[in-house]
Amino acid sequence: MPCRPQRSRRFWHSLIQSNEEGMQMVTEMGKTFRDVQVLWLGPVIPVLRLVDPAFVAPLLHAPALVAPKDMTFLGFLKPWLGDGLFLSSGDKWSHHRRLLTPAFHFDILKPYVKIFNKSVNIMHDKWKRLSSEGSARLEMFENISLMTLDSLQRCLFGFDSNCQDSPSEYIAAILELSSLIVKRSQKLFLFSDFLYYLTANGQRFHKACDLVHDFTDAVIRERRRILSSQSVDEFLKSKAKSKTLDFIDVLLLAKDEHGKELSDEDIRAEADTFMFGGHDTTASGLSWVLYNLARHPEYQERCRQEVRELLRDREPQEIEWDDLAQLPFLTMCIKESLRLHPPVIDLLRRCTQDIVLPDGRVIPKGNICIISVFGIHHNPSVWPDPEVYDPFRFDPENPQKRSPLAFIPFSAGPRNCIGQTFAMTEMKVVLALTLLRFRILPDNKEPRRKPELILRAEGGLWLRVEPLSSQ
Ligand code: HEM
């Protein structure tokens, strides 16, 4: 039986607004319709919104070719990200995914913890200067995304742009590209490439793409030059001294089972994709966890005690790789925040064949589906009192019987987030040091959620930070 909307019960005339009212509307909708909802794109195109773990399983676990990403909006990213992992499909995607998986191995990630410490220290020095009067009111997304970009640029390219303290053209171009994509997706008539590139914003997009590509190309050329002047062994030995292998080196050295390497164009696409996929998402995750802890000082204090205990008698106070497993409560707080405020709220898929749902209904071939991460995370059948911030839902001492798909901030299945360990590591380091050094307080006004490429807040997410005297 095809999955047809029952008009009297499951019928909404328009897609949801991208603002607080829209977020409240989907929350209300989720109280009644707890598995599949139908939205209408115009009068004739149904879009299914799936909000139950059992109902998203056939899509998330399907081979990547059966439920590929829908490219209507994602196509806007193509001139920037090319055929990187995020946008590619079919054989190219599976080949590259296999080649790139080792780049996120623990051995590669471990040395990046030092980089995370360094980047967050720079941000905190700035916060301390700004709060010399006792406290400062700061916009979190702006501050934190500069810091995550700083980290990524160091991890990927081994490049220190000093972007947190003085403007960097490259970082400004990435921020501009992300904001131009959001603006474009809000205007239907700009969906045509021809029209878009005639507009001033289209020209700016083009220019910013060139600038970002030129930077990545220059790094690749320089690394290729070094590699051609020495053997791979010598190259690795020289790298071993600094104990850090930049992502770009891993990409340059990657070979498949037939000894085939990635082309320069492929490497550029993957590097640009990591910069895109890794900065805003992690900044959103961190901004919202600070917000949730500002609203729950009792959990904030408990995290702080955990970090103080861990770093007791340690100088300098730096988080190391082995510490990450010693912060169980802080980890619970991050996970609960990723549930309540998932940075990526929806995953868009288009079915290339009929897909059978657990209740026997069928999603017809060609249908667009929204796997709603937000909807699942707020589904009252899965999470009792879903709007309450309660880190104990993730208490490892008291494991709950839940579907593994009940919590999917990094998606799941073959196209899940390749950077999730990187992101969790960075978030733990940043949160631990932030709570050690600052008290985080809510702003007077409640933020209004704003889903764009990632979950933001309208006009920014403002919090107050107060340096702690012992630091
Ligand atoms: C809190 C931080 C992060 C969140 C919440 C997040 C979330 C996600 C999600 C939900 C997807 C699936 C998207 C889809 O299917 O449409 C994804 C894919 C991806 N993410 Fe992340 N991500 C985060 C951090 C990172 C980082 C740090 C990197 C890289 C350094 C990264 C790189 C990627 C890439 C390359 C993909 C595409 C994977 C593929 O299709 O094979 N992400 N991410």
UniProtKB/TrEMBL annotation:
Keywords: Endoplasmic reticulum, Heme, Iron, Membrane, Metal-binding, Microsome, Monooxygenase, Oxidoreductase. Belongs to the cytochrome P450 family. GO terms for cellular component: endoplasmic reticulum membrane. Its cofactor is heme. The keyword Iron applies. Heme binds at residue 417. It is found in: Endoplasmic reticulum membrane; Microsome membrane. It comes from the Eukaryota. GO terms for molecular function: heme binding; iron ion binding; monooxygenase activity; oxidoreductase activity, acting on paired donors, with incorporation or reduction of molecular oxygen. Pfam families: p450. Its main location: endoplasmic reticulum. This is Cytochrome P450 4F5 isoform X2.
